[in-house]
Amino acid sequence: MFITKDRIGAFLFLVFSCAYGVYAWQIPLLPTEQGIAVSASTLPKIYAVVGVVVSLLALAGSFLQQVARPQGGSGALALGRTVLLLVLMVLYALMLDPFGFLLATELFLLAGYLLMGEYRPKVLFWASAPVVVVFWLIMTRLLGIYLAPGTLWS
C-alpha cells in the first residue's frame, strides 16, 4: 500500500517544517545583529532544516521498510501509545513549574521510555539522567538561559 500512517505523518511534518523554514528565514534582524554569527533567527533556521531532514529520512525509511514489515497489525497499539505520549507531554508542561526543569524532564523521559517498552534500569538511567544534566548545563551555563528550579523547592 502506498499511503500509510507513517508516510502521512512524515509528509505532514515535512510540510510543517518547510512552512516553519519559510517563516524562519523571514525573521527580521536588528541592526546590532547584522554582523554576528548567531542571531534571533539562527535556532529557528536550524530547527527548520533538521525538521526537513528528519521528515525526509522518515519518508525514506517508510519506503525501505515496506518490504520487511508484515501487513496488518498493531494500529490500535500505536494509536494508544501516541495518545499516552500526548498526555505525558501535557503532564510534563504542568510539572515544569512546580518540579523545575531537571526533575520534570527526568520524570518525563523515564515515563516516555517506559511507555515505549524500555525496562532495563541501566538504559533508563543512562539515556535520561546524563541527557537532562548536559542539556541543563548547556542551557544555563553556556547559553545563559535561566531555567527555574521549581516552586516546590522554594
Report on this structure.
The structure is a single chain. This protein has 154 residues and is mostly helical. It has five helices and no strands. The protein has helices spanning 5-24, 42-65, 75-115, 121-126, 129-142. Helix 1 (5-24) packs antiparallel against helix 2. The longest helix is centred in the middle third of the chain and has 41 residues, at 75-115. The relative contact order is 0.09. The model has no long low-confidence stretch (mean pLDDT 86).
Rg, Å, rounded: 19 Å
**Biggest sheet record:** none
- Derived from helix and strand composition plus strand pairing, the structural class reads mainly alpha
Low confidence ranges: none
Instruction: Tell how many strands the DSSP assignment holds.
Output: 0
Q: Helical percent range?
A: 55-70%
Q: Tell me, briefly, the overall form.
A: flat
Topology (elements, then pairings):
Layout: H1 5-24, H2 42-65, H3 75-115, H4 121-126, H5 129-142
Brief characterization of the structure:
The chain is mainly alpha-helical. The protein has 5 helices and no strands.
List keywords for this structure.
mainly alpha, 154 residues, flat, 5 helices
